[in-house]
Amino acid sequence: MAESNAFQCDEFLIDLENVSFSYPGQGPLLDRLNFQLRKGERLGLIGPNGSGKSTFMHLLMGLIKPDSGSVRLFGMPMAGEKDFKQARKRLGFVFQNADDQLFSPTVIEDVAFGLLNSGKTPKEAVALSKKILRALDLEGFEDRITYKLSGGEKKLVSLATVLVMEPEVLLLDEPTTGLDEQTVKRIADLLNELNIGYVVVSHEFYFLAKTTRDIFAMKNGQIRFQCTSDQFRPAG
Ligand SMILES: Nc1ncnc2c1ncn2[C@@H]1O[C@H](COP(=O)(O)OP(=O)(O)OP(=O)(O)O)[C@@H](O)[C@H]1O
C-alpha cells in the first residue's frame, strides 16, 4: 500500500488532496479540492468570477496555506515555506495582475532579475533576456520603463520574466486579459511550442481549447473535469 502511494506521488508534478481553504471571516472557498498534473500535461481551468481559481494558484505557489489537506509538488510534500522555496525554483507563475510581477525600473532588469539571482553572469542574463524578449516580439523594449508600459505589454513582459527561467511547470493566471487578438495568438503559439506541462486559468474557452488538452471547471470549491479540447466547439 505504502509502495503504491509512493509511486502515485512521484507520477504527479502537482498533487493536491482534499485541500480546503477559506479567507478569514469568509465561508469555505475551496472544499476538499483534489487536483493532479502529470509531467507534460496541459490543463485549462475555467470558472465563474470569485470561484477561487487565483486562490488555487496561490496555494500551489505556497503564497497562502490550506486550512487542511495536502499539497505535493514534484513528488515532495509541501510542509512549509522551506519546501515551497525549493519548489518555486521549478514553477513559473504568471500572476493575473502584471503589476504583482514586475518591480524593476526597466524591462531588461525585470527579465534578467531571476537569472542574476540564480547565479548567471550579467552578460549571460542579458543575452538570455534579449532572446526571450525577441521570442515575444518585444525586441527594443529592453530599456523601456516598466511601469509606463501598456497593460498588454506588461502582461508580455511578465510572461518573459517567467519563461526566461525555463520552469518545469507553468502556472498562468489569465494570461490573455487585455491582449489583442494577434498577441493572444502569439502566446498560444508560444505555449504550444513549449515542451513543458502547464495549468492555464482563463475565461476564454477558445484560448484554452487551443493551448490545453483537458479543460477543468472550478465550481463549489472543487475542480472537476469539463471536457477535452477537441470536444470543445466554439459557437458559430
Ligand atoms: N486576500 C484576500 N482576502 C480576502 N478575500 C479574498 C482575497 N483574495 C480573494 N478573496 C476572495 O476570494 C474569492 C475568490 O477569489 P479568486 O481571486 O480566487 O477568484 P477567481 O476565481 O480567480 O476570480 P476571477 O475569475 O474574478 O479572477 C473572492 O470572493 C475574493 O473576493
UniProtKB/TrEMBL annotation:
The keyword Transport applies. SMART domains: AAA. InterPro entries: AAA+_ATPase, ABC_transporter-like_ATP-bd, ABC_transporter-like_CS, ABC_transpr_CbiO/EcfA_su, ECF_ABC_transporter_ATP-bd, P-loop_NTPase. Keywords: ATP-binding, Nucleotide-binding, Transport. Residues 14-235 form the ABC transporter domain. The keyword Nucleotide-binding applies. Coiled coil: none annotated. GO terms for molecular function: ATP binding; ATP hydrolysis activity; ATPase-coupled transmembrane transporter activity. Pfam families: ABC_tran (PF00005). PROSITE patterns: ABC_TRANSPORTER_1, ABC_TRANSPORTER_2. GO terms for cellular component: ATP-binding cassette (ABC) transporter complex. CDD domains: ABC_cobalt_CbiO_domain1. Gene3D superfamilies: P-loop containing nucleotide triphosphate hydrolases. Belongs to the ABC transporter superfamily. This is ABC-type cobalt transport system, ATPase component. It comes from Desulfobacter postgatei 2ac9. The lineage of its organism: Bacteria, Pseudomonadati, Thermodesulfobacteriota, Desulfobacteria, Desulfobacterales.
